[in-house]
Amino acid sequence: MSESFYVRAGGEKTFNDLVSHFYALVAVNPILRPMYPENDLHGAGRRLQMFLEQYWGGPTTYSDERGHPRLRMRHAPFHISRIEHDAWLICMKDAVNGLEIGDDLKAELWEYLEAAAAAMINAAE
Questions:
Q1: For the chain, which domains are there?
Q2: Torsion of Cα atoms, 66 then 69 then 72 then 78, to 10°
Q3: Contact at 8 Å (CB) between 49 and 16?
Q4: What is the structure's pLDDT at 78?
Q5: H or E stretch including 112?
Q6: Are 60 and 54 in contact (CB under 8 A)?
Q7: Looking at CB atoms within 10 Å, which of 25, 70, 93, 94 has the fewest?
Q8: Phi and psi, residue 109, nearest 5°
Q9: What SUPFAM superfamilies does this protein map onto (predicted)?
Q10: 30 vs 25, 53, 64, 92, CA distance in Å?
Q11: Residue 76: its pLDDT value, please?
Q12: Cα end-to-end distance, the chain, whole Å
């Protein structure tokens, strides 16, 4: 059995680095920041990290604590048009590019993130 992406990419440290970098950008992004409750960036970051770690073969903490991910349902209350989608991808691309992992792993991660972001669009601009 081959190693999971989670292991090949460096495990918890890599996903913590990704999410920390991403939410540092969200915190100052005029489009994304208003979508989060004032005191919940940390909680949102923790949930994203748990989800990504589980998706990529790491611990199942996300499902243990929150049940099935149901990404579209969980994002349904938020207005996500192409504008929010693009802002999210700009922040996430910067975070992915900042990871100290191989370009092949970055490409694999990015391909998933682009597809997941597109699936969250639920509103017209």
A1: 5-119 (1.10.490.10)
A2: 30
A3: yes
A4: 85
A5: helix 103-120
A6: yes
A7: 70
A8: -65, -45
A9: Globin-like
A10: 10, 27, 33, 15
A11: 80
A12: 45
**Measured distance CA(1)–CA(13) in Å, rounded:** 23
- For residue 43, give the amino acid letter: G
Token pair belonging to 53? 């770690």
Residue 114 exposure: Cα atoms within 13 Å on the Cβ side: 7
Whether the CA torsion 107, 109, 114, 118 is positive or negative: it is positive
